[in-house]
Amino acid sequence: MDGIRELEKYSAPILITLTSCLLTWAYVKAGGFSHMLSISSKLTSQKFWSLFFPSLTANISFWATLALNIPDFTRYAKSQTDQVIGQAGLPIFMGAFTFVGLAVTCSTEVIFGHVISNPTQLLGEIGGVTTIVLAIFGVSLATLTTNIAANVVAPANALVNLSPSKFTFRSGAIVTALLGIAFQPWRLLRSSESFVYTWLVGYSALLGPIGGIILADYYLIHRTNLSMKDLYTLSPYDAYYYSGGYNLVAMASLVFGILPVIPDSIKPEENVFPVAPQASSSHHERNDENSNCSSYAGSGFTLWDESAAKKGKTGKENVAERPGLRGLRLTPQGLRLSEAFAP
Q1: Cα–Cα distance between 18 and 21 in angstroms, integer?
Q2: DSSP H/E element including 334
Q3: Dist. CA 316–CA 310, nearest whole Å
Q4: d(Cα 272, Cα 280) in Å, to the nearest integer?
Q5: Is residue 281 within 8 Å of residue 185, measured between CB atoms?
Q6: What is the DSSP secondary-structure string of 296-326?
Q7: What is the pTM of this model?
Q8: For 41, which DSSP code?
Q9: Distance between CA atoms of residues 270 and 280, nearest Å
Q10: Shortest CA distance to 170 belongs to which of 182, 184, 159?
Q11: CA-CA distance, 36 to 32, in Å (whole number)?
Q12: In the beta sheet, which residues pair with residue 336?
């Protein structure tokens, strides 16, 4: 993990510098931002909104994995302020890099006479040995750092937590890499249809309910209070043992959030992002374009509602509310032992 931290620390300024150089080149060659951003939209208002929501869901899904496993990184922060600043940088730099991509892509029509959206193809058009070497270095560095942070840390830690005696972080990372190759991601990237609907929108129907359940359990049910004693015990009498070690209400909520969008998630899709105006727009009939948000809210509300009903029937109180147990409360300064629960 220390090696990953060092890699990210030094690669970030390098990638920002290379990206700034690319934007500067496009600005000079295109004669300023006015020419770079002068391309008008080729989508009608109806087509724009029909593509907006699946694109929004795809972008949310793209970050959903990192959102769920962000504690893998924030637990190393020295203070609450540090972790907030670190997370605030994500949308800022994401927006900045998105602007660079749009601006440079638009500038290619002015510079070359046609739009080039593929970065690799654009760098080939620019030419020059120095450009090619820097491009290979930049693309490789960006791919490596992005994949390690977003796609390796979480599953590697999950394998370690699953069986600490069999896995280390390094072996978990290797298994993750091999599984990633076995899933053949290049097949998903062959078209926007398979990548957006089959993959991003599809797995958002699974990750959305998980996020909703986590937030509902922490904020609505436990009211940000956690029993530290019960978090680290296998006793059937602890607060988080539930039914034989499984939270059946949470599992039912997960199923409830996924079921409504399963039919559309497995439906083959064609011409999701049509290039020609006359292309089909069959995706209008789908119901999973907002699968992440709808399943997120559905599962979270179901868990909260069922837990409240169960508590009302049994009269069982939240263990984090009982005196004599230390609790955790989320404060502006971070996770703190709540004085009200200290023995």
Answers
A1: 5
A2: strand 334-337
A3: 8
A4: 8
A5: no
A6: HHHHHHHHHHHHHHHHHHH-PPPGGGSTTS-
A7: 0.67
A8: P
A9: 8
A10: 159
A11: 7
A12: 329
| SS3 of residue 337 by DSSP | strand
Distance between start and end Cα atoms, the chain: 36
- Put residue 269 in one of left, alpha, beta given phi > 0 → left and psi -120 to 50 → alpha: beta
Q: How far apart are CA 71 and CA 6, in angstroms?
A: 18
Look up residue 297 and give its amino acid.
A
Q: Which residues of 235-268 are buried (b: 16+ CB within 10 A; e: fewer)?
A: eeeebbeeeeeebebbeebbebbbeebeebbeee
C-alpha–C-alpha distance, residues 149 and 157, integer Å: 12
C-alpha closest to that of 18 among 115, 128, 117, 139? 139
Nearest to 206 by CA among 149, 266, 156: 266
CA 146, 151, 154, 155 torsion-angle sign:
negative
The distance from CA 32 to its chain's CA centroid, rounded to whole angstroms, is 34
Given a contact cutoff of 8 angstroms between Cβ atoms, the answer to whether 341 and 287 are in contact is no
**What does the DSSP 8-state code read for residue 327?**
E
> What distance in Å separates the CA atoms of residue 157 and residue 135, rounded to the nearest whole number?
32
pLDDT score for 319: 45
The tokens describing 46, both together, are 């109806």
pLDDT at site 175:
92
User: Nearest Cα to 57, choosing from 275, 302, 301, 295?
Assistant: 295
CA angle 265-294-73, nearest 5°?
90
Divide the 343 residues of the chain into consecutive groups of 10 and give the mean pLDDT of each group.
72 87 88 75 78 80 81 83 82 86 87 84 81 84 78 87 88 89 82 75 80 86 85 82 85 82 58 40 49 67 69 52 43 44 37
Gap between the Cα atoms of 177 and 184, Å rounded: 11
Q: What is the 3-state secondary structure (H, E, C) of 239-274?
A: CCCCECCECHHHHHHHHHHHHHHHHHHCCCCCCCCC
Place of tokens 């868990």: 303
Which residues make beta-bridge pairs with 246?
243
